Amino acid sequence: MPSPSSSPVLPLLGRGLVAGGVAGLAAGLFSLLLAEPLMDRAIRAEEKRTAAQEHAHAARHHEELFTRSTQHGGLVVTAVVAGLAVGVLFAVAYALVHRRDPHSAPWPRALTFAGAAFLALSLLPGLRYPANPPGVGDAGTVGERQAMWLAAVAIGVLGTLLTWQVYVRLTARSVPARQLAAALTTVAVLAALFLLPDNPDPVPVDAALLWDFRVLSVASHALLWAVFAAVFGALGLRAVREGAVRGGVRGASAAGVPSRPGATPTAPPR
Prior knowledge:
This protein has helices spanning 9-49, 54-63, 68-100, 106-128, 142-169, 175-194, 207-254. It is mainly α. Helix 5 runs antiparallel to helix 6. The longest helix has 48 residues, at 207-254. The model is unreliable at 1-6, 55-62 and 265-270 (pLDDT under 50).
């Protein structure tokens, strides 16, 4: 049987691309069917809110290059492309960890990695800067808001890694002590997140619509990572089974056992 440490990067990249494409498609369709109607409502509300400003209203429509139907299709395509990018990055990280611990089972590892990625890249930054519907926010603060979001993502990623390292390095301690240390580290990460400045723009959207939009945004991220983990882990299990079958065939051939019924046994090589 081949050694489990032999895990070429290219098969992992292929696995990541397949899982990322499927996950991106699922998240895109989810957003198209559930989140886009809320976006349309938010856009209509924004148009009514600024209807008194006739000049700005006309200028906005003049600058609208794509129809909503085109934007709907672009949403799914963008989600698939984002899923493919996620798949590549995930496969590279998976390969690096696999080299250090090649004996871990692919299914629980995929679930653990995807859960950590959702926490670091989606949930923690989303707690500090929840998603807002389109049309909300001043165009002049886009750069500032992007910088704050990237800072939140950086804190989420570094905080998740720090919490994991604290838990791993306290292996000699009791389980309650390790869990308490990890919990305190998580609290410190959340405190660092909420030290970031607030969103500079008001959110003049109906509270119920805003809540629904933010819940669906988090749900689409959770769906992306859940589907990704399931597909990536399932492909990993299939690769392990295929490797075991190939190893069994090679072992049988080396022992002189025929690989198909009716074949003549051969002497093993010396």
